[in-house]
Amino acid sequence: MSLTEAIVLGRARHLELVACEVARQAAKYVRVHHGELGAAATKSSPTDVVTEADFGSEQLIREQLALRCPGSSVIGEEYDDTVGDNRISWVVDPIDGTVNFMYGLPVVSVSIAARYQGRTVAGAVTDVLSTRTYSAALGHGARCDGEAIEVSRPASLATSLVGTGFAYDAAVRAEQAQLLAELLPMCRDIRCMGSAALNMCWVGAGLLDGYFERNTKVYDYAAGAIVASEAGAVVALPPNENDGLTIAVSPSIAEELSSIIAV
Fold first, then answer.
1. Which one-letter DSSP state was computed for residue 162?
2. pTM summary value
């Protein structure tokens, strides 16, 4: 192990703890407003909404990260990126599952990942309603509320529960529907629950056997991806932001699922 690698691994656990603390604070704020605040604006399409709580949660996160790790850069969903003067950057999704949040549905999360020199080294995802926090640090495994988690080991795709999500673009949704028609008869069942971050954490915890989604952005998957990977999942991320396929899947069905969806 090189000195640089040792430094990264040594700092990763601390950054995980910071991410957990801040994600829990933001989740508490979001929980207070759950189901109460409607859309404040739309973004890429009429179905791509943002609420005042999204802005409030991200502001809280940015303030808390600045207190704990001054000088860090921040990549967020709702505000412009900020460039700091150290080698740490944070990737923030203040509410993952905004439509669920608006409707008062329970699948809503706050997602925070830490990067060191461009590499994701830690992350935390807090389930807003259950208050569970999934977290991981590079080389240190993955946890749910501090207890180690690991992926499931299904015998085949036929006995597997798979999660997915849909794009905001209508044309992409039509293509996704065609893929689901092919996949559904080949697996146990499919779930679409509205939070990419939680889906990836659930793969890590063995609550889902696999998850895939197209047109995700870095703040959607950054924290969930390291949780899933450190829990033993096979993870593949888009080569370019919002372009391509995000996958987190149990190793025992990775090849089988990928052969169907990676088209």
1. E
2. 0.92
| Lookup: tokens for 155 | 């015998």
Residue ranges making up the domain that contains 50: 3-148
Confidence bin at 42 (pLDDT 50/70/90): very low
Stretch among 57-66, 91-100, 117-126, 163-172 having the lowest mean pLDDT:
163-172
Cα separation, 89 vs 145, whole angstroms? 24
DSSP state of 157: G
Categorize the per-residue pLDDT at 37 as very low, low, confident or very high, splitting at 50, 70 and 90.
low
- Which among 148, 171, 206 is the end of a domain? 148
| Per-residue pLDDT at 3 | 38
Q: Could you tell me which residues are beta bridge partners of residue 189?
A: 161
Query: Are the beta carbons of 150 and 47 closer than 8 angstroms?
Result: no
> Comparing C-alpha atoms, which of 52, 10, 13 is closest to residue 34?
52
Cβ atoms of 226 and 248 closer than 8 Å: no
Q: Is 105 found in the same domain as 19?
A: yes
Number of domains in the chain: 2
Q: Based on the domain organization, do 69 and 118 belong to the same domain? A: yes
